Amino acid sequence: MTHRVHPYIFRLGINTTWKSRWFNEKKYKDYLREDTVVREWLRKKLRAAHIDAIEIERSPTTMNIIIRTSRPGILIGRGGEWAEKLKQEIAKKISGINKNAAADKRDLKLTVEEVKTPEAHAAIVGQMIADDLEKRLPFRRVLKQTSEKVIQSKGVEGVKIAISGRLDGSEMARYEWIKKGRIPLQTLRAHIDYAQKEAYTTYGVIGIKVWIYKGQIFEEKKNV
What we know:
GMP Synthetase, Chain A, domain 3, Ribosomal protein S3 C-terminal domain, 8 strands
């Protein structure tokens, strides 16, 4: 049986960093639960906004939620009204998770960052594939067209897309994949973006996995 490791976790501290950046020994359990529930809730709520990553930073007085998306207009709204409404909903969600959140007197800050090249980010590509499959487009055409778009993006050297489930409504589930370029999963200095998504069709759930290779990252040589 093979041992599978998440490509992002495999490279923590080498060319990737933690998506929750804080430490609090006394409230570690409460804060970790907050991060996990809020991040999962935001991914489901903002599915149409094509979210790339949700990062959380904490200080003794501030909690900053950074949302990277290819459609910032959907989150911000006219004059920032939707962003303010989302901020209030997040605060309400946190108070429901942690009863002591109000006593902490933390300021909640929401930062929305735009992703300039969405085809070079695995999470956004996976959501684009899910949207196409839910529209009942032929899966082979979706795989081919998406992989060609990704490989043509600036800085991308390889892409692999795999889908599994009742494809095109077939009675038996199967696994299909397409690959262009290189995907060196065992090279630690390789910058590999990975994401898993689900497409909810009338025939059932189709799982989607996307790997995008963006070249190798080398440490800068320091002048002694």
